[in-house]
Protein: 54S ribosomal protein L7, mitochondrial
Organism: Zalaria obscura
Amino acid sequence: MALQQGLRPLRRSIWSSQSSQLGLAAQQSRGYASTDIADTIQDLESASSLRAGTPAEDTTSQYDPVGRARRRKIQLPPSRYQFRPPKYYRGPLHPHQPPPASDPASREFQPGPFSLPRLEQTYQSTFAQDLMTLAYTHFPPGYVAPTKSARLRKWEGESPYYKNRPLRGPRGADVLRLLRKPITFRNVPKLERVTVHSMISAAKDDSAHLHVAGMVMQAITGVRASAFKTKKSVAGFDVRANQYLSLTCELKGEDMHHFLSKVIDVVMPKIKDYRGVKGSTGDSSGNLAFGFTNEEVALFPEVEVNYDSYPPKMIPGCHIMIHTSATNDRDARLLLQQIGVPFYGKLVN
């Protein structure tokens, strides 16, 4: 014990002397480092790239990346030139997985947002809460939901034809309607996309109608129109197969909100004696559609400003299909009524 007590002050003196030596060395190194940094900065400033001369002519003449790529006998693999994600999702265990939608290489990538559409902002701040309140279903305390029978029924009976038969559909209809889940803050109906479609029957005789219609649709939607061929020949309408007679534009994100705002706030009020959208429209899955004639399409501001640029007889009509996340026409109609779309007639849910 006495030996250990005698060694403790000795250890302290050794550590104190070593720490003082290290501190002195650190101060000296800091001084040397500061001088080295100053010299380095002066060297960099004196050897600036702006003062460097032009490279030799031999060096510039030999630099030809395009020619070097052409002289290459073996091309690099396609993945070095471009990348396309898989078109179909084949499950989580497949070796080729599509990138996330936020990746610019994804097929579902949507650039932006570049602006804040007024319609989208109003939906997030007002419409979503109001729609959730309108579609709210109150159940008192102690309520127990009744058990529902299976949607697909068995074949019951003693007939031998009923054995091992597949399940049949529900009573009353052969089509299975989508189930409506209670609307909460997680599944409030919202706009998904808008499809603008136009059928140009006059293009079977003159393709100029198709070109003018494509320019008009691109002007009013801001999206390049895609042309589609006819699949079959119809003698009654003088239509042959593989003729380009229709145009379609798919709108999503900002383009969708800007287009709907323009239709509701600008075009519809301009139409004389406009009654609105028919109340029976819908496909029972939350998708509603309406149409404009060629005179009504001419009321779009992009066409109205440059009306002389388009032949009046070649301006097409169009159908507008609004796709929503709702599972029935009632919820989709509530959403569009909040946005400002008028409906008339009997409402068919």
In short: Strands lie at 191-199, 226-229, 244-251, 277-278, 287-292, 318-324, 343-344. The CA atoms of residues 201 and 245 lie 6 Å apart.
